[in-house]
Amino acid sequence: MIDGPFFVLVVAGILGTGLVAGVFYGFSAFVMRGLAALPPAQGVAAMNAINVAAVRPAFMAVFAGSAALSALIAVVTFVVWPDEGRVELLLGSALYLAGSFGLTIVANVPRNDRLARLIPGAPAAAEYWPVYVREWTLWNHVRTVAAAAAALVYISALT
């Protein structure tokens, strides 16, 4: 049974990965659909504004903090090597670190950077906008599932 400070660490990991999954789910469920319904110039401008707002401490503490917690959970699991839950703890950490945090870096951020270089009313922005929405949202679905799965797998390690 996982207990003491390690238990608290895993519970914090559950909360962090679950919160990130919720944010990502909101984008997949309605934010991107709403933005996609706007004229391209407005959608590009709105998404660029959202991307700037996202890298503020309130979200980044949870997003990057969950990555740090996931890495710490994996390290502590290797050191302690508990009789129960070790596979779940390592899997939960891998899901979040690769499927949510890592995927953000390799799939979503490059698309955000490309979108930020476009002038919202320009023809290039109008041409890229539907591609951006489709691709960014697809990868966001994957990030959502990975973060939610990490939370669920962490929970299963405690039961």
Name the features.
159 residues; mainly alpha; 5 helices; 87% helix; 0% strand; elongated; DUF1772 domain-containing protein
Describe this structure in words.
With 159 residues, the chain is mostly helical. It has five helices and no strands. The chain has one domain.
The poorly predicted ranges are none
How does the major sheet shape up?
none
So what's the overall shape?
A: elongated
Name the structural class. mainly alpha
Number of domains: 1
The sequence of SSEs as H and E is HHHHH
Task: Tell me the helix content.
Answer: over 70%
Report mean pLDDT, rounded to a whole number. 97
Radius of gyration: 18 Å
E-strand count: 0
Counting H and I runs of at least 4 residues, what is the number of helices?
5
N-to-C span = 8 Å
What is the percentage of strand-forming residues? under 5%
